[in-house]
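Contributing: when you submit paired examples, paste them exactly as shown. First protein:
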Amino acid sequence: MKRAETVAKKLIVPSEALVISDLLGVLQHPIRLMMVCELLDGEVCAGDLTDRFGTTKGNISQHLTLLLQHGILERESRATKNFYRIADPRVALLLRVLKENFCPHGPTPSTKANSVKSRPAVKPKSTKPKE
């Protein structure tokens, strides 16, 4: 195989990059990221999310709507309650990998066997002005 062909197979094409960056853009908000992580273990009722995050129903509803619009979550109505779950297993896989490698409280049980132990913590960039 030629080097150019090998390199081309490793690159993300523009259409793929757009889909991935859109997904990451939606998940960049801490509440949305935490909400989707809550769903790694299964579906959750919207009211439970409000209680878990200590915010308003309206705020949770706005975040859920955005996650639904982008196909990250799906909703099922039962009686008077709405239950949410992760719509795409690739999103669940991505979040498990992130959780395993970046969350100090440890990985979820299903990913513990694949843990990468030598990863350094990501440190935020300093906001101090340069002198």
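Second protein:
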Amino acid sequence: MRQEYRPTMAVLTGKREETNSPRPPVAADAHTILGSHARFNGKLVFEGAVRIDGEFEGEIVTEDLLMIAKDARVKATLRVGSVVIHGYVEGDVHASNSVEIRAPGRLLGNIQTPSLLIEKGVTFDGSSKMTGGKNGSPSAPPPPTPKAEG
């Protein structure tokens, strides 16, 4: 019986590898999509975890994890599941799960997310709005309505 050799390549496929137990992507799953000396301008849409080390300008869309490395420079609108920022980001961030800004990260833009972590030593110049997660529910119940008297 003859076996056929079929090379496989996971880098830049845009698909997650299937496992027996589904879990959200983590930093160890990241594929470096943009190296430290690379520049990209446009729209990036992906599944899984991606780390940007270089320069990116445009729009990034994913329901999964985006990591911005320490030396990265990103000027973009981010529509993500989660983002961890260690580098420079200029633009609005809409995250359905969470936003983390880690030292020495810098964010110049507005944030909309249900979960926000801002570490000591970062720069954040913008506004934040805590919203519901993927199901659209509010992150906290609304205050009780006062009862009318009389």
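If you have annotations for the second protein, write them as plain sentences, like these:
The chain has a mean pLDDT of 80.
The chain has no helices and 13 strands.
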